[in-house]
C-alpha cells in the first residue's frame, strides 16, 4: 500500500456519466471504496460535506469504485451523492497500483504528486485533518467536516 512520501501513480478513469477524470499530480483526495462496504457508507456523507465545503477549484476528489457502474450508481442515489464516482475497469488496475489495505482508504495527494496522508477506514480526526490541509492549500478558512458529537463513532475500521 502507498504510504506518506510515496509517489502517487497518475491515472485516468471515467465517472458514471462517462466523463474522464485524471490524476496527474494536482492536489487530490483519492478514495477507494466498495458499494457493499458499511464503513464506506458511513464515510461518504462526510466526503460529500468536504466537496461542498471546498469547491473543486484547486483540488480534486476522486472516488474510485471497485464495483461496476450499476452498483456505484445505486450507491450514489441511496446516499444522495453529487461528487464524481469513478469506475475502475476489469482487474482493478488503479487499485493494484495504490494497493489499499481495506475500503475505504483515502490518499491525500499533494501538488507534486506525492502521497501526503493515508487514512484507512472511517476516522473523524483524519477527515478533519484532511479538511484542514486542503483549506491551508486553498487559502480558505478550515471547516470541521466530522463533528465529534454527531451521533456517529469517532472511528470505524474498513
User: CATH H-level name of the domain at 33-138... which superfamily?
Assistant: Glutaredoxin
Fraction of helical residues: 25-40%
Question: What is the CATH class of the domain at 33-138?
Answer: Alpha Beta
Q: Could you tell me the number of beta strands?
A: 9
Radius of gyration: 14 Å
Morphology call: globular
Number of helices: 4
The main sheet comes to:
5 strands, mixed
Beta-strand level of the residues, as a percent range?
A: 15-25%
Gross CATH architecture of the domain at 33-138: 3-Layer(aba) Sandwich
Reading side by side through the largest sheet, how are the strands ordered? 5-4-3-6-7
How would you summarize what this structure contains?
The chain has 158 residues and is an alpha/beta fold. It is 30% helix and 24% strand. The strands form three sheets. The chain has a five-stranded mixed beta sheet. A two-stranded antiparallel sheet has the order 1-2. The chain has a two-stranded antiparallel ribbon with strand order 8-9.
Descriptive account of the structure:
This protein is an alpha/beta fold and 158 residues long. It has a domain at 33-138: Glutaredoxin. 30% of the residues lie in helices and 24% in strands. It has four helices and nine strands. A five-stranded mixed β-sheet has the order 5-4-3-6-7. Strands 1-2 form a two-stranded antiparallel sheet. It has a two-stranded antiparallel ribbon with strand order 8-9. The chain is globular and about 40 Å long.
